[in-house]
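This entry is listed as follows:

___
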Amino acid sequence: MTDASTPTDGATAPVHLVFPPMVESNFGSLYPAPAVLAGFLAAHGVESSQEDLNESFAEYLLAPETARALGAGLVPGVSADSLCAAVARWSNEHRDQLIDPVGRHHFGPDAPYGWAMEILAQPFSVDPDTGVLAGEGDADTAAFYQAFYSWTGTAERIGDTTALVGISAAMGPQLLPALLLAAHVKAARPSVRVVLGGPAVSLMSSVDLDVMLRSNASVDCIVRYDGEFPLLELARQAVAGHWDPESVPGASCLTDDGVRHVPPGVGPNLNQLPRPRYSKAALARLASPTLSITQARGCYWGKCDYCDFVELYEGSAPFRGRHPDSFTDEVEWLAGEFGIRRFNFVTESIPPAFARRMSRAFLDRGLDVVWNSFAMVDRRFDRELLESMVASGCEFLVIGLETMVTRVLKLVHKSADREENIRFLQDARDVGMPLRVNLIPDLPSTTYEEALAALGDMERLADCVDSVSVFPFEATRSSNVGRAPDQFGLLPLSTSDAIGQSQYALNHLHNADPAMTPEQRSEVHRRYRDFARQIATRSTLPPSSFKDDLHPGALLRVPIEELDVLDTGEKLVCTHMGSRERLSLPGAAARILQPHLNGKPFVAGRIPGARRPDGVPKLAERLIAARVLVPAAEREGLVDDTGV
């Protein structure tokens, strides 16, 4: 394992590595690809600099002029009464809840209001299609990103010594911003070579790659699959002034004879990868930084028919894993080098045998770290192993549980069945292992009744999970389901006949699943999301018993520190940032609450209208349940007038 010093921040090195917007789930953390590539380049004599524009995009969304425009509904696609606008207004008034006085970002999922950043970013998440690749995307969204790049000054920071800019696009919604960034860089520095790589392009068909290269002259080359060796060779060519991407395995480029796709070579041995070179300046922006460390590429199981991430490493073995001892060495070194104790393991699913040996190594060395990882339900994750993982510092596992329907699990070749899922969840709860569970309510052929039965199982096991994320099923062309949809009960459709919304349309197989009607599917998605929201607010807002103790003389107030209130003239729309719930108060109820939007205390009994037998206004009870009213701690500033 090669050690490398931390890179110099700034864009004066021969290679500048950029992570573009927009991956809202990554706000508050650093995507590891630039650091991994920087370490590899440095070990081979090529210096580089790094820039995380995804994190900068979050800052741009919070900039006063941006937040005001979003809050006023002046951004196309965002209405003033939308959740996004409400979050924008609140964040503009309470920016210190998201960026502290020293400039550190509190954006992650563990931050009290971290979810707000994902809401602010949603209007700018573009699911790319061939129109986007051909430069025919939405003009308003493109203009927003162009304004963002001008705001950051990223092109101006690229020095005269920089020969190549590498852009890593991990997710489909990054493709439009990445292409706009390439054009932005080329406009300022025409001589710089721009190389685009990452999973988003590795999963694209050769036809789509052809369209992108022919339509975007700013992109000099695309790297598919493992990026280390191709990027190193391209960097050397750019620095030497002898550009010949046709000679580089894994490269796609436009030539005089058309687009050329060079077959990929073998990727690097993960046990011999140099250590990642994280930017200390980038880490300093984060309130709770996490370092990512590669545990494997590919999946040790590799059989799930709906998954296509196992297709990302053509040219190499389908699964390459790290040795537990060298992995532990790297964790220990990174903790000492950067003074950071929290780690995220980069893997599709941590293998049980690796987890057992690694946990033992962490404990034997007395490493004072916390870590998290993706994992799958596997009978080899027994109670003893889970207990050892917790003891070694595991703060949570992200579990691709997907469903509790055994028939469907077997159909798509998941490792576990319903009974094994239940055993795993209960064992994890009993040993104190927090789980963040991913659910797909409508895997192929799932019926309405099966989906609701699976939801019932999860509701009964709610005390076993820390959080729930819901992902409506989308068949991808590069998965086994996409290659043989009829074997999974799906009916392929033409693009014009397709319904629903894809997260990555370029790789989406348009299809219909007759197991549910569209109305049933919509209801299933809603009920699963309601369950996920209940789990999320359970941890941030424990149930209050105040409404049971309420009496007419109780002091109440509007918690303006956690509320956005929009007066539409006909109603008040209240959005609670803690519970993430919204309540509309029309007519008389709005007029009753209006005078108290200054947050000052008032007496509950002063609220007019229908009352409980004990004299408590029923409206007060309703508003307390919605957390639009809360107990007032003291009598200072008491307001007796209800304003009605």
Observations:
- Confidence is low (pLDDT under 50) at residues 1-8, 496-503.
